[in-house]
Amino acid sequence: MIREIIRPTDNKLTIDLPEEYIGKEIEYIIFPVKNHEEKTEEKNFDISSLGGSLKQYANPQKAELENKAWELHINETNYH
Asked: CB–CB of 34/42 below 8 Å?
């Protein structure tokens, strides 16, 4: 796989391919990379807004197991 981020200076792009790609089907995808400000803004969301969003999938009968899941996992791992 080849991945490279460039800043083109005109509307033409030349790509040098490795020898092992010659004769094979390849895929190329071109899309703009988000700038630094956009990436920063994307990370600064309020996680509390997600609270309860998966509540519809909760299984009250398994709540006790969920509370002990890590302890059960550790105990199982240590004995096998």
From this structure: yes
CA distance 8 to 54: 43
The answer to whether the predicted template modeling score (pTM) of the entire model surpasses 0.85 is: no
Task: Write out the two tokens for 57.
Answer: 């999938």
Structure tokens at 8: 């083109």
pLDDT per position as a tens digit, 58-72: 888 888 887 888 888
Indicate the SS3 state at residue 63.
Answer: helix
C-alpha dihedral sign at 40, 42, 45, 50: negative
39: its two tokens: 């990436």
